[in-house]
Amino acid sequence: MIEELKQLIIHNLDVDTFLDLIGLDIADLVDLCEDQIHENYVSLLKAVE
C-alpha cells in the first residue's frame, strides 16, 4: 500500500507540492539529505557556483 502511494507521489506531484503537503520546505529537505550532500560535496558545490 505504501509502495503504491510512493509511486503515485513520484508520478503525480511536483517537489514543491509534495513538500507543502507534508509540511516541509527546501531547507528541511537539505537537512534530511545531509549524508548525500557530504557524499556529493564537489558536484553540488560546482552546481551552485
Compile the SSE list and pairings.
Blueprint: H1 2-12, H2 15-22, H3 26-32, H4 34-39, H5 41-48
Short characterization:
The protein has 49 residues and is mainly alpha-helical. The protein has five helices and no strands. The protein is elongated.
| Main beta sheet | none
Poorly predicted spans: none
Helix content: over 70%
The fraction of residues in strands falls at: under 5%
Overall mean pLDDT stands at 97
Secondary-structure-based class equals mainly alpha
Number of helices: 5
Global Rg = 13 Å
Tell the overall outline: elongated
Find the count of extended strands (DSSP E, 2+ residues): 0
Task: Supply the key terms.
0% strand; 5 helices; mainly alpha; 49 residues
Structure description:
82% of the residues lie in helices and 0% in strands. It is elongated. The chain has helices at residues 2-12, 15-22, 26-32, 34-39, 41-48. With 49 residues, it is an all-alpha fold.
